[in-house]
From TrEMBL:
Any single GO CC term annotated in Swiss-Prot or TrEMBL for this entry: plasma membrane
Entry GO MF terms: semaphorin receptor activity
Cleaved signal peptide residues: 1-19
GO biological process, one term: epithelium development
Residues in coiled coil: none
Residue stretches making up the Plexin cytoplasmic RhoGTPase-binding domain: 49-161
Keyword line: Signal
Signal keyword on record: yes
Domain Plexin cytoplasmic RasGAP: 1-427
Entry protein name: Plexin-A1
Species in which this protein is naturally found: Cricetulus griseus
Top-level taxon: Eukaryota
Keyword Signal: yes
Segments crossing the lipid bilayer: none
Length: 457
């Protein structure tokens, strides 16, 4: 209930203030991850904040510029798009869609699975590229997804996104196809049965139809009962921790901007939302009432109330706020940022050692600074003038008026009643003990509501 209360009342602050640095962080992570190889099967990446999602093997790759025909207007100038020669066809399609439909909400864009990637060579030669087709390399029980390098797509090539065709492999019957394919004719293999395009969500399951396992950049030996000694190409921890730190440095400004915005009482002209001041004062009143003078307890209450209950969820899941797509590597990086945010709200000291998780080591030098921001934020709020009940009531009424047509009030009332019915006895006792509740005869009024609901049911 508290989470929903904050979600409703912090909407304006999120939209006008905190939303921008959150979106910028998401974009920065996505852009940085896509500068290097991302394994379409395991979800591991060359650039990462998460050790669990870091490609430890050395992957050779080149950056290519593809000139994409505008699918909305073929006569418009082609859109230059950066890609990697180790990208799968689906990864290329996603990058092209990001560039061509920049600024368009994700839910309103065509999806990669609904489009074919067409490689254009001159006016007539057009080849449909796919993750799997008759040219796919198969080695024993391993089938490797096709990449731009597999097709020998060169820098500056012209490509287009076209609606997906219905034939098994969407191979053009034009004579130009055979001519263009001759460069890698030796790769051709006869497929026993057409393979459907698989989802590009990370997976490591075998192809049950053919008994083969898909791979892209790295064969996942963890799932093959291989001895640990067979993984000799893995780099030692110190080496890839350096790579994690390099990625962290690139994203540092965006993390700082977001944390600073959240832990500021006044930022870019936006005043602190009244709901935060009201709730924090309520927690302080309860601490005074119960004679709790330990500052760490008060700090923990406030952290559990707002940062850990509301903000962590928003940081971890920006797709709840924006119409975007969050892939597995972006999710892993946001999880590291969210964990750092949680550590910044903690009052306990984190003792680091050689066995500490890499995400703790990554932000070890930053967390003391972030903690000081949190402490200052709580102290600044405590110093602000208290909000009267009348002002808070007016604020809540105004918020309800602004969103009058967006919510079903009867449904909301029923949800509240379901909660009340579950804890009826405890609530009635609490209302009887509270002086202000007695003055307003709230116990009697609630009993009338319960009786009325019982009759109607």
């Amino acid at each position: 209930m508290l989470t929903n209360w904050f979600t409703f009342l912090l909407y304006k602050f999120l939209k006008e203030c905190a939303g921008e640095p959150l979106f910028m962080l998401y974009c920065a992570i996505k852009q940085q991850m896509e500068k290097g190889p991302i394994d379409a099967i395991t979800g591991e990446a060359r650039y990462s904040l998460s050790e669990d999602k870091l490609i430890r093997q050395q992957i050779d790759y080149k950056t290519l510029t593809l000139n994409c025909v505008n699918p909305e207007n073929e006569n418009a100038p082609e859109v230059p798009v950066k890609g990697l020669n180790c990208d799968t066809v689906t990864q290329v399609k996603e990058k092209l869609l990001d560039a061509v439909y920049k600024g368009v909400p994700y839910s309103q864009r065509p999806k990669a699975g609904d489009m074919d990637l067409e490689w254009r060579q001159g006016r007539m030669a057009r080849i449909i590229l796919q993750d799997e087709d008759v040219t796919t390399k198969i080695d024993n029980d391993w089938k490797r997804l096709n990449t731009l390098a597999h097709y020998q797509v060169t820098d500056g090539s012209s490509v287009a996104l076209v609606p997906k065709q219905t034939s098994a492999y969407n191979i053009s019957n034009s004579s130009t196809f055979t001519k263009s394919l001759s460069r890698y004719e030796s790769m051709l293999r006869t497929a026993s049965s057409p393979d459907s395009l698989r989802s590009r969500t990370p997976m490591i399951t075998p192809d049950l139809e053919s008994g083969t396992k898909l791979w892209h950049l790295v064969k996942n030996h963890d799932h093959l009962d291989q001895r640990e000694g067979d993984r000799g190409s893995k780099m030692v921890s110190e080496i890839y921790l350096t790579r994690l730190l390099a990625t962290k440095g690139t994203l540092q400004k965006f993390v700082d901007d977001l944390f600073e915005t959240i832990f500021s009482t006044a930022h870019r002209g936006s005043a602190l939302p009244l709901a935060i001041k009201y709730m924090f004062d309520f927690l302080d009143e309860q601490a005074d009432k119960h004679q709790i003078h330990d500052s760490d307890v008060r700090h923990t209450w406030k952290s559990n109330c707002l940062p850990l209950r509301f903000w962590v969820n928003v940081i971890k899941n920006p797709q709840f706020v924006f119409d975007i797509h969050k892939n597995s590597i972006t999710d892993a990086c946001l999880s590291v940022v969210a964990q750092t945010f949680m550590d910044s709200c903690s009052t306990s000291e984190h003792k680091l050692g050689k066995d500490s998780p890499s995400n703790k080591l990554l932000y070890a030098k930053d967390i003391p600074n972030y903690k000081s921001w949190v402490e200052r934020y709580y102290a600044d709020i405590a110093k602000m003038p208290a909000i009267s009940d009348q002002d808070m009531s007016a604020y809540l009424a105004e918020q309800s008026r602004l969103h009058l047509s967006q919510f079903n009030s009867m449904s909301a009332l029923h949800e509240i009643y379901s909660y009340i019915a579950k804890y009826k006895d405890e609530i009635l006792v609490a209302l009887e003990k509270d002086e202000q509740a007695r003055r307003q005869r709230l116990r009697s009024k609630l009993e009338q509501v319960v009786d009325t609901m019982a009759l109607s049911s």
